[in-house]
Amino acid sequence: MINNLSPAAHLASRKPLFWDISPERIPTALRDNDDWAIVRIFEYGTLDDISDCIEFYGEKKVIEVLSSSQLRPTAYVMEYLFLHVDPQEKYI
Description:
Blueprint: H1 7-12, H2 26-32, H3 34-44, H4 47-57, H5 59-67, H6 73-83
């Protein structure tokens, strides 16, 4: 994490990442809809967002969610780069 915010606070401040919900609902969405939030962050987030996502939710949870989700190609690449997970065996 490059900024001084906690991972949760940084992600909650990322309105461009959660453009379709009101800013005051972002912390609730991060907490209550974690599967959706993890996928959203890996598909549309910056490198800092992805790092904070892994720190906030934990590597095990993130791998579990991403491995069972249909992702955009960029998210698969980020999953491999950050977590060394290759569920489609594209990078082996």
